[in-house]
Specification:
The protein is of the alpha+beta class. The strands form three sheets. It has a six-stranded mixed β-sheet, with helices on both faces. Strands 7, 9, 10, 12, 15 and 17 form a six-stranded antiparallel β-sheet that branches. Strands 8-11-16-13-14 form a five-stranded antiparallel β-sheet, with no helix packed on it. It is globular, with a radius of gyration of 27 Å.
Length: about 625
Amino acid sequence: MLLKWLAFFGVLFLLNVRYIISMTTMPRCNEDEDTRGQSRSALVAADVNNNVPGVPSTSTSSTSEGEGGSSTCAVLFPEFIPSTNSIWSSNLTRIAEATTDHELSFAFIAEMLLIASPLRLQLGVEKLPARDYEPVQRAIEIAYARYKHVQALDLANNTKKDEQQDPPKLQILVMGGSVTSGVRCRELIDNPHNLDPKNRLFLKDFDNNFDCAWPNRLQNFINNIIGDVVEVTNAAVRATDSSIGQTMLEGKNMNNGMPSNPDIIINAFSTNDHRSVNAFLNLEEFVRYVLRDEQCQKPLLIHFFDVIGTQSRRIFEVNLFAQKVHTLANYYGFGSVSYTSVLDDVIYGDSQEYWFKPVGWNNRKKSAEEIHPQLGMHVVSAWTVGYYLLNLVTTYCSLEPVMLSNTAIHNPSELQENQSLPPGKPKMAPPAHKLPPALTSDLTVGQLSEKWSRTNETQELECTTAQDLSSKQCAFSWIRGISKDSPKDTFAPFIVNNTGWSFVKDHGKLGLVAEGANSTTTLEFHNATHPIRSIMIMAMKSYGDRWANSSVRVQAFEFQQNNKTMGHSPLPVASMDISGVHNSETSVSYKYSIPINIEDASSNGIRLTMELVGGSTAKIMGLSVCS
């Protein structure tokens, strides 16, 4: 039964627990055996039962798994499906041991695990994916196939076969801002005894710490438990929100290092999203793009909520944004999991603790606002996502028999023969995988019904054409943080004139910065192979005297390749003024789309100018010229 238990527990965790391998405040070398033993005893005492019904014991089994056409769920749960709580609670010691590494003490991990109890983790399960369960089933099957392959290699003494024949890893893509990139994550590891809120030196540490952040910890934990089964890509880019995340997904031809077809996408932009006046619209457009119908296989979409309110200090604003997320999750059927709901009373009940929120957040001036939580947030976030995925697997597998056999209870045709039906019978619901109409503020029930009826009549799109439509073709693209090439090398072939603009990295954020009034840069794009219909500008908004009245004017001109002058003063085909200042006391990048229409881009070029027309500085974090 050992192999079956590992398969069962591993696959669940592989879809679930992407958290735990690496984190704690004190180095293990400072932890004596007595302390470690006491921590282990506390966890063992907290374990509900080492032999929970339905959880295989450590004995081996010769049963052949996956044979006879059985589903993956039937293999994982051959008798009955235990609750998520019982699975988690009976393995606390194992979870802690898999989490502890050379930098993190078992004692700290054990204490964290006792605080983030299974009952608390259940509070983080805000919304499971609804209606379309195909992405869930596919993720389970991919993970389990890879797990069996890894186990077979282990039994064969790691004899490596042709990698092209290896089952693929489960691909999880996490997208977010600076919190997700691990800013401040290592302070409790590197400098645990010198985090006095009055000491401003540590505020200068703006480095990304992807190894410390919860996405990497989840990947390491899963693979430590069950082998090389899952790959988690952390595509977090600081000072970005869901609108930028959508741009990143759209640019499949950009050199951004993201998987082209992830099995699971986790939106972790909530800390930055909730400050935007367009938060609802930005998140909805992100969701609609991820779940667009022009796909052969839609990914499993999950929203991760980690807003704790230390930046705005208004709990009402946090809850208001949470309601917006919940509304969209209910309407579109994507999943939602919340770190905030797991530990809100712990976080708000003690203003001095800083395991789970920023150090000294309430002792600083507004101008020194800090939004980046400490190490504990990343530990518990990984557990939160892990528990959520485990809950998703057990729930899906409990529903699978019903989904596979809708007529298990009775035969509808027999009922119809023997009973007369009253009028008003509803029509068939739209296909579960179809995207509903956009949830606008003025959408009425009658309009929704009409649009759904038209959706039922719409034929499925061919996958081949859908793949071509899903990504933009760009004549130029650079986004700070995800484009792998040097920005200077990327821009150099296109700059024809520049005064006052240069690439500057401050607070860990590299961007194209204007210094001084009337700073102007001009770029030209030639010989595009596709029509040009949009220019995307990713501009940073900030606060303080330096950014007062900041404004950049962006203008686009069309010219003939063999006649760049087009007269002495060509009129712009598009123009936009972009403000660089906002009321929020943090720095966030926003996306601005400038529509243009140049059909024959191979003959006609585009001249783009950016001029600082207000204030003393501005910062561009991304630019693309695309179809």
